[in-house]
Amino acid sequence: MSGRLGSLGVALGRAGLLLLGVSVVVFTLLRAMPGDPVLIALVDGGIAADPATVADWRRSLGLAASLSAQYFDWLVGLATGDWGLSMRTRRPVAWELGERIGWSCAIGLGGIALAAMLSLPLGRSAALSPAGAIDTMSRIITVLLQSVPSFVLATGIVLLVLTAPGTVRLYTGGAIERLIAPTLLVGLYALAPLMRVVRRAYLEEREQFYMRAAQAKGLSARDALSRHAGRAALLALLAALPPQATWAVGGTIVVEVVFGIPGVSQLVVDSVAARDYAVLQVFVMLVAVAMVLVHAATDFLRRSLDPRPAA
Fold this sequence. Notes:
Elements: H1 2-32, H2 37-44, H3 51-60, H4 67-80, H5 93-98, H6 101-128, H7 133-147, H8 150-162, H9 175-206, H10 209-216, H11 221-228, H12 230-259, H13 264-274, H14 277-305
Helix pairs in contact: 1-14, 6-7, 6-9, 6-12, 7-9, 8-9, 8-12, 9-12, 10-11, 12-14, 13-14
């Protein structure tokens, strides 16, 4: 019990240090961007940028203090739930993100979950019949998706739907109808590499000694692979999920822009143009926390399936 608590404490400490490092990097890089967010906000709002107004805005947005004081104030606010005001809209950052984060999570998490569920049976089928129809198709799709950016394929889907009116209302339908295409697209881009990982795990297990023992007991090579290699394939899938989840963040933003989804993508794009530090800092930190949770969850599942200590 004490060993598990010690491991948990070490993991939490590492996660805390990682997030602290991310906070320093994102705070520093955003301040290094050219352009003054206060001047940009005043010009966009049609407000005269006289010295008194600029100074008042800097004080109200917490930009008048030194950089170290700004960082520590932001860090304390981030930990206590006070994420500040958007420099562009003057609304609480929590409101700005809260109105949109549900759409983005539905697309990103839905696409990754769909890809993970399909990769196991499809990867197994590809391994059972190397150079068969499913294996060949997976190779073709993998090469195609590596060659074609997601926004190009998304634009092609939009043009295809527009030539067949009455099929799917990409921009005017209900929430579920609007989420179908972007979720499937994110899932497709994640499915190809996950499926190849599962396929490779099955093929590697086929060469293990216990497989030969299973065949010596009367099982065919196909049945032995189907019955005994599933855990290894699942472990390989769990190892491959965190990188795909990281890609899904960027992929989700791209498809949201193309399909006009009211997620965080347009907010992030507008915030970059306006140098809205408050929104961008919180967004990056939320992504970092999500990635830490994904790594922790997959690591826990892998240890549950294979409790042996890592070599």
